[in-house]
Amino acid sequence: QVQLVESGGGLVQPGGSLRLSCAASRRIFSINAMGWYRQAPGKQRELVAAITSGSTNYVDSVKGRFTISIDTAKNTVYLQMNSLKPEDTAVYYCNARIVMVAGQWNDYWGQGTQVTVSS
């Protein structure tokens, strides 16, 4: 069981910056992968950024603008968002995946935090 608590969402102007935080109840080294998803009204949920074993991946639309990172001492994953655009507006969800055996895993989710980019 992993509990994830998100914070950092809010209203920001286009071109502004925001940092989302996701605090885990379990030590980060014991989690196989973590990521950030987002979902806007009328759109499919999409994986924005993921990190595992020091490697990161980003959806094309945020490359060069968003950065995912971890602080193992604080058991916290961050999503630094720069140069925000109105199209980034969505509910953002933190995700943790723990693999038990090959082909068998559990996903855990944060409560979601609203990010609104508007002037």
**Low-confidence runs:** none
Mean of the pLDDT scores? 94
Query: Helical proportion?
Result: under 10%
What is the tally of helical segments?
0
Q: Which series of helices and strands comes N to C?
A: EEEEEEEEEEE
Q: Based on the structure, what is the oligomeric state of the protein chains? A: single chain
Structural class: mainly beta
Write a structural description.
The chain is mainly β and 119 residues long. It is 0% helix and 56% strand. It has strands at 4-7, 10-12, 18-24, 33-39, 46-52, 55-58, 66-71, 76-81, 90-101, 104-109, 113-117. Strands 2, 4, 5, 6, 9, 10 and 11 form a seven-stranded mixed sheet that branches. The chain has a four-stranded antiparallel sheet with strand order 1-3-8-7, with no helix packed on it. It is globular, with a radius of gyration of 14 Å.
Quick recap of the structure?
The chain is mostly beta strands and 119 residues long.
Secondary structure: elements and pairs:
Blueprint: E1 4-7, E2 10-12, E3 18-24, E4 33-39, E5 46-52, E6 55-58, E7 66-71, E8 76-81, E9 90-101, E10 104-109, E11 113-117
Parallel strand pairs: 2-11
Antiparallel strand pairs: 1-3, 3-8, 4-5, 4-9, 5-6, 7-8, 9-10, 9-11
Key features of this structure:
single chain; 119 residues; mainly beta; 7-stranded mixed β-sheet; 4-stranded antiparallel β-sheet; 11 strands; globular
